[in-house]
Specification:
heterodimer, A: mainly beta, 3-stranded antiparallel sheet, B: mainly beta, 10-stranded antiparallel sheet, about 10% helix
């Protein structure tokens, strides 16, 4: 089925999934010594990445095989029972702040189904994180054991929501018709409570040469930032980032552009410092 | 490189009570707890409203029964205010207001202890009630060009191991070469200036480690600020206002006119029906004529003193019934009944020490004042301490015996060098002493150098009188403000005097005061007369200051 989405070369995605909840459950009918389970967590999964339309697909299909998600947060899970000498308690805290290993993300739009879209990770073994764990067991009789270790886990998600028939900016719904998030922070396979979702898809004319963002998980864009760039002809020129913190420079062939510096001659940028540099490659399709 | 939780382990409250519970105010929890709530330990109590996060109000102390006064709850402070902190980074000025918008966490605990040598920065203490407020500020890099706006530090940043640099870490590494090919997008992340501020209000149980030779019992409270930034700062200025009520709320047994009824948790009403000039009997040791006791004025007044740098031995004399601690032996400078607006530089890295001002002490045999040049310690400023307390008045029989002789100054007697009732003390320097808790800062931290000021070596301290019963503690620093290193403000804390360390010492001291034998018998059981004698020498019908007040003209001989 035809769709103007077939004419869109790139979509740029900004995604934030926030999970925060706590519960404490006492085993029914267990009396004073009933088993109590508890779980609390507070974490965020975020990403800013570009998806490129794949040619020769039946539907508008965008993908990026190497997206790295940023993750920060913790979870605390435990069980306890009894009192006095018969009391016992066991628990684990998991912490992580950093980025996942790269993995594929796709966006597939179904024009024949009211432009419903699937936005999801692929490959359940990708998007790996290594969490710091702190586990303990204690008993009222004096047993006390603790261990600190690391644990591997994976992040995956699937979000379904309708897209407009006409291409343009699309905001992710706070509560879409379907959402699934798997992380190692929660006891069950999926998040105990649905994540709060924010973000958007934006259409861009091509690949920006540079993005200037802050150092948070969200990588909030820093708009109207002036930079000095060494161009292929050897001349250093000044460019200004757009509202989304992006700097587009028409490029071709084997041109190489070098970001020399952010011009920090005025507030608030004079109160910032470079904190990280990453390159996202989006090879041309064959 | 520490995250927030690791950094907070350096605070006093979490050193004493590592598992203290906390309430989250960051991110979408910014609307949590919007009203004032009382906090109460076994002795201390106050009110804190996160809506006015930079203020603590109605601090009270539950005094137990002593020979000098009966059990009661006394108002120590009407309020304490942490004013906005001023910073300069890369030539740009920022103002950090300790408001709810930037409040991330609020910890509270009613127990906890710090053992000896457990902490480099905190001396032994037992917590009665403590509060820790954690504020996070960062420059909003998405703000309008040309302006600096601040926003709270995002929660996920707090969890990062590189939230703050390790102290002494090298300057930022050389940036990478940022090249992109036509099929690549390069993302440059910029980190804003971030500042973490901890405001602690830690009230401690009574101890006897506030004065030399452990001669007095005091209950310390520590309303300090701790500040850390992820970049070096060029300048920092902070101000804390400490405001007592204008009238003492302490009641004494022994009859007389008691203070007006006072709800310690109600705002102070200066217009309440009460004659501030009507003293009430406070009673010395519970002996003698109950109608002929010491009297206490209700109006607060403020005095400042400088310890003599050769006075350590004089503190021994407090327990020695023959040679009491005369002001001329324990102090080198004094100014009492300070008016509003008075301000002095109390410590500064610019002060070299060495030969200093002249102190004039009364020489009874020569019947004149003799000048002594004082040897000052490096960084030692104008005064060493401040006391805000009501004054005393001699018992009736004594005042009647010398009726009309105003020159004897028996109606307004100031307590020092320690205070027997309702006195708020703050010492930012002590005389050279044996006890490490009386030592000041060096480059490595507090409690390091005998006789040195108790503020960080690069800070300038100025104390200003806001009123006769309130003062502002103002510090600034323009060096030593490294990234990832705590800056402590008002680290030395304050103390509320409660009693002598052992009651018998006070009684024995009074009983053996032979130098009061020429006065009516009530003097022998009078704290007021004890204090009068420490300050004055009776010269006919005149009370001659043993140590002439700062700035007072030297009387002609």
């Amino acid at each position: 089925m035809p769709s103007p989405w077939f004419d869109v070369p790139y979509v740029f995605c900004r995604l934030r999934l926030t999970v925060s909840h706590a519960f404490r459950k006492k085993e029914a009918g267990g009396g004073a010594d009933a088993l109590v389970t508890s779980h609390s967590t507070d974490y965020v999964v975020a990403g800013t990445f570009r998806l490129q339309r794949m040619r020769d697909s039946l539907r508008p299909y965008f993908s990026n095989p190497k997206v790295s998600l940023r993750v920060a947060g913790w979870s605390l899970s435990g069980m306890s029972s009894g009192s006095g000498e018969s009391a016992f308690e066991t628990g684990t805290r998991k912490d992580f702040a950093g980025s996942t290993t790269p993995g594929p993300v796709i966006l597939e739009i179904y024009p024949d189904d009211k432009h419903q879209a699937n936005f999801q990770t692929q490959d359940d073994n990708a998007f790996e994180i290594k969490l710091a764990t702190h586990s303990w067991e204690r008993s009222g009789a004096g047993f006390n054991q603790e261990a600190r270790d690391t644990e591997e886990g994976h992040i995956s998600f699937l979000i379904q929501q309708p897209f407009p028939a006409k291409p343009g900016e699309v905001r992710l719904q706070d509560k879409p018709p379907f959402v699934l998030l798997n992380t190692p922070f929660c006891l069950a396979v999926t998040a105990c409570e649905p994540p709060r979702i924010s973000g958007s898809f934006r259409l861009t004319p091509g690949l920006p040469a540079f993005r200037i963002v802050d150092d948070t998980v969200d990588q909030n864009p820093i708009p109207h930032c002036r930079v000095r760039v060494q161009c292929p002809d050897g001349v250093a020129r000044e460019f200004v980032a757009d509202d989304a913190g992006e700097i587009f420079i028409p490029r071709s062939g084997k041109d190489v552009y070098t970001l020399l510096e952010v011009l920090e001659d005025a507030a608030p940028l004079c109160l910032s410092r470079p904190a990280g540099w990453t390159i996202e490659a989006m090879p041309d399709q064959p | 490189m520490p995250n927030l939780d690791a950094l907070l382990k350096d605070t006093m409250l979490l050193t004493a009570a590592p598992g203290a519970p906390w309430k989250d105010f960051g991110g979408d929890k910014v609307h949590a707890e919007a009203s004032a709530t009382p906090s109460a330990g076994a002795r201390w109590a106050w009110t804190h409203d996160p809506g006015n996060a930079g203020q603590v109000k109605h601090l009270t102390y539950h005094q137990l029964d002593t020979p000098w006064y009966s059990e009661q709850v006394v108002t120590v402070l009407d309020e304490l205010v942490w004013h906005p902190i001023e910073l300069v980074h890369r030539g740009t000025a920022l103002t950090l207001e300790l408001s709810k918008e930037f409040l991330l966490r609020k910890y509270e605990a009613s127990s906890g202890s710090i053992a000896a040598k457990k902490s480099r920065h905190w001396i032994p203490a037992d917590i009665d009630r403590g509060m820790l407020l954690v504020f996070g500020f960062q420059v909003n890099l998405r703000g309008p060009g040309g302006a600096v706006t601040l926003e709270p530090i995002p929660r996920e940043v707090l969890d990062r191991a590189d939230f703050m640099p390790a102290p002494g870490a090298p300057a930022a590494p050389k940036p990478p070469v940022m090249k992109v090919k036509p099929t690549e997008t390069g993302t440059l992340q910029l980190a804003p200036l971030r500042v973490l501020v901890c405001a602690e209000f830690v009230c401690c149980k009574e101890r006897n480690d506030y004065v030399p030779h452990s001669l007095a019992r005091t209950a310390r409270f520590r309303p300090h600020l701790m500040l850390m930034s992820n970049r070096p700062l060029e300048r920092m200025a902070a101000k804390v206002s400490i405001r007592r009520p204008p009238m003492s709320t302490m009641a004494h047994h022994g009859g007389g006119v008691p203070p007006a009824p006072h709800d310690p948790h109600a705002p102070h009403d200066p217009h309440a029906p009460h004659d501030p000039h009507a003293p009430h009997a406070m009673g010395g040791p519970r002996s003698g004529d109950p109608d002929d006791q010491d009297e206490m004025l209700h109006e607060m007044s403020t005095g400042m003193w400088t310890d003599s740098n050769s006075s350590a031995l004089a503190w021994d004399k407090i327990a020695n019934t023959v040679h009491p601690p005369f002001w001329s032996s324990v102090f080198s400078r004094v100014k009492t009944n300070l008016p509003t607006g008075t301000a002095f530089l109390m410590a500064s890295p610019d002060i070299p020490g060495g030969p200093g001002f002249l102190a004039h002490t009364w020489n009874p045999s020569m019947r004149k004042y003799v000048a002594h040049q004082q040897d000052l310690k490096p960084r030692q400023g104008y005064f060493d301490n401040i006391h805000v307390a009501p004054a005393m008045r001699a018992p009736k029989s004594i005042r009647r015996a010398v009726a009309g002789k105003k020159g004897l100054k028996l109606d307004d007697i100031i307590m020092a060098p320690f205070c027997i009732h309702d006195c708020l003390h703050m010492h930012w320097r002590w005389c050279p002493a044996d006890e490490p808790w009386l030592w000041g800062w060096d480059e490595t931290g507090p409690y390091a150098v005998s006789g040195a000021p108790h503020i960080p070596v690069h800070q300038h301290l100025r104390v200003e009188l806001e009123s006769p019963h309130a003062f502002a503690y103002c510090v600034r620093a323009d060096k030593g403000l490294e990234a990832g290193r705590w800056q402590y403000i008002l680290h030395e804390g304050l103390a509320y005097g409660t009693n002598t360390s052992e009651e018998w010492k006070g009684k024995a001291m009074l009983a053996a005061m032979e130098f009061l034998s020429s006065w009516p018998s009530a003097a022998m059981s009078s704290w007021a007369m004890f204090y009068w004698t420490l300050r004055y020498w009776r010269f006919g019908d005149q009370a001659m200051d043993r140590l002439l007040e700062d700035g007072a003209p030297v009387p002609p001989t």
